[in-house]
Amino acid sequence: MFNLKSIYRLIFPDIVAYFKKELLGCKSVLDLGCGYNSPIQYCKIPFSVGVELFEPYIEESKRKRIHNQYIKADIRKINFEPKSFDVVVAIEVLEHLTKEEGWELIKNMEKWTRKKIIISTPNGYLYQSDADDNPLQRHKSGWSVRELKGFGFKVRGLNGFKPLRGYAATMKYKPKLLWHLISDLTQKITYYFPEGAFQLLAVKVIKNE
After folding, report:
1. Which domain holds residue 117?
2. What's the CATH code of the domain at 95?
3. 179 in a domain, yes or no?
4. How far apart are CA 60 and CA 36, in angstroms?
5. Backbone phi, then psi, for 141, in 5-degree steps?
6. Phi and psi for 171 in degrees, rounded to 5?
7. What is each CA distance from 90 to 6, 43, 204, in whole angstroms?
8. Is 209 a domain residue?
9. Could you tell me if 40 and 67 are in contact, meaning their C-beta atoms sit under 8 angstroms apart?
10. Nearest CA among 150, 89, 85, 87 for reference residue 119
């Protein structure tokens, strides 16, 4: 049964809807820096592995039973066999790494996947200090559409027009309900013109020889 919220999301998809679309038909996912509330939980993947260094996030994710397997590790140091997963994702992760660490992670993601890489990250640098008493939450870099396209990604813009949102993606203006609607309306444009979006969704399909 459709309710008002589900109808609204049919018209104005959120990041969960886009992940569901991109992961359709995929049997295994590696979720790097999975945190405690990954959208993978809504995607009905037969097998997923979450990698996270911050113990409280792992425990909360386990409580929600988001992944089949968990690895407590630094994503900058972990390694997997080539082509171990259908898809490798980094959801709001790149901005927590330096540029050099981020590019190295993307190269590793490409090695570990069979089908595609999916990344979401703010559009440009967004200040964020420690959160949840977790120093890993600090933002160290910002990523542009041009950079990600240069690495072979197809990039779309999410969360609407960038100037409408501030710290932690919260709306800058009130009433927030109205401005959320305006933001969703602007996403109809920024999805195709991501340079003006608050958040970037980057997908790279791997062409196997």
Report:
1. 4-204
2. 3.40.50.150
3. yes
4. 5
5. -155, 165
6. -70, 140
7. 26, 15, 12
8. no
9. yes
10. 89
